[in-house]
Amino acid sequence: YRVLNASAIPEGQFIDSKKACEKLLASIDIDHTQYKFGHTKVFFKAGLLGTLEEMRDDRLAKLITRTQAVCRGFLMRVEFQKMVQRRESIFCIQYNIRAFMNVKHWPWMKLFFKIKPLLKSAETEKEMAT
């Protein structure tokens, strides 16, 4: 039930459980006549335990929803970065293909395409000779 008011019980300090229960129940908006403290137990009037359970469930639902929202936000930011990177890559590829399409019919480029395979064969012949 600490979820209902985490600031009521300080972290890192030892507090007797009875005092911790008293502080926690006092910090929650509940009528003080609805419960009593025994030596080792807290006694609730009818219906109060259900109310506390509902309050706790609501608080846990909010915390879980917030955690899910943060996780989904992180995952979508990562996905967005991937999409941006893919988009930039596509633009780079398109730019290079367009540039190649513009120069592939130049006479010097045609000559280069014919000579390039011959250069590899000449290189392999040199390696075989040595």
UniProtKB/TrEMBL annotation:
Highest taxon of the source? Eukaryota
Might you name a Gene Ontology BP term for this protein? actin filament organization
This protein's record includes keyword ATP-binding = yes
How is this protein annotated for GO cellular component? cytoplasm; membrane; myosin complex
**What Pfam families does this protein's entry cite?**
IQ
Does Coiled coil count among this protein's keywords? Answer: yes
Example GO molecular function: ATP binding
Q: Which residues form a coiled coil?
A: none
Which UniProt keywords are listed? Actin-binding, ATP-binding, Coiled coil, Motor protein, Myosin, Nucleotide-binding
Q: Residues in domain Myosin motor?
A: 1-57
Q: Which family does it belong to?
A: Belongs to the TRAFAC class myosin-kinesin ATPase superfamily. Myosin family.
| Name of the featured protein | Myosin motor domain-containing protein
